[in-house]
Fold:
Amino acid sequence: MHLVDLRLRGFRNLADDDLELPEEGVALVGPNAQGKTNLLEAVYYLEILKSFRGASDRQLVRFGDSFFRVEGRVRAQERDQPFDGQRRERVVGAAWQREGSRKKVTLDGQEPPRLSDAIGQVGVVLFTPADLALVNDGPAERRRFLDIVLSLNEPGYVTALQRYRQVLSQRNAALRTGASDHAGAWDELLVEAGARVTALRGRWIHHGRERFTDLYRELSGGEAATFRYDPGVPEVMEEGDPPADDHGRQLEASVGARYRDALSEARDRERRQGTTVVGPHRDELRIRVADGGEPLDVRDYGSGGQRRSVALALRLLEADTVRRRKGREPILLMDDVLAELDEDRSRRLLDLLDRTAVGQTILTAPRDSDVRFRGDRLVRWRVQQGRMER
Structure:
């Protein structure tokens, strides 16, 4: 993929600008707090329609302005699959205005029927130092990672996830009021959406397990790592079981049957606790590493270097998912990712990226000497107080 140009109006501290981006990519160079990460945030906003930092839309509006707008034109290269069978370019726009707190999203100048129809159109994978949270934080952070990867790349996932969350909220509200019989009325809707979420997560983890191990081994210099799915519906699938078919229909039916049984078995516990205790909202992605010994949970026992390698391997696996599911090379956004890596891991990451990352890359660095990926092949833009000096 190639982000051809980017239009910025009122976004963060960035100056209003119309940027033309080189096909190879660009290195954003400058001191901290000048706007380098804000530019990456603007690009990624076009992918997920929200801030990757967790900021509200209101916080993205530049001080003193009443709105922001970001628009990007994306082109599929000749080796990539077109967007809809024929179209090789797509224009994605997103805006938010203070008056009425209104968000507007457009695809090729038209508003899609649902906002969710516009996510994942750019094909971006983001690397940041904050990715360590994928390892260090609790299960919710790893569920969020799964949800983003699958929402951007798996048709139907975001719809099932939104439906599940809506029904779960209604069911929990009934349980909190002590109306457990009323809560049961939501069971079938919960099972229908939850089974699809679980099946799609299970398929992705199954298909990515071997590749994750290979990526981690290369990043770490030969160490072993594995991940496995620990679903919130007990006994819903065995570790290592393949999906029942390419579309997961049989797996989804099997998950649904076990989910119904699990809800029935948990009825008394739910009545006591006042909340739904089984389902994909309790899922965990368990990651273990081994350095010549027994595999251990990386969150509890991993070193700093091992944790960073795990986080990088997950992001590289996300890039592989874009290639496999969309037939297009992702755009890589890299926010000073080498800063906290030791020399050996930095070298191994750069070697791996040189072999596998052939698409456009936009990266940030405080100094020219820190631009080590693709070296002189990347155009430098100086970033000073939100302005890009080409």
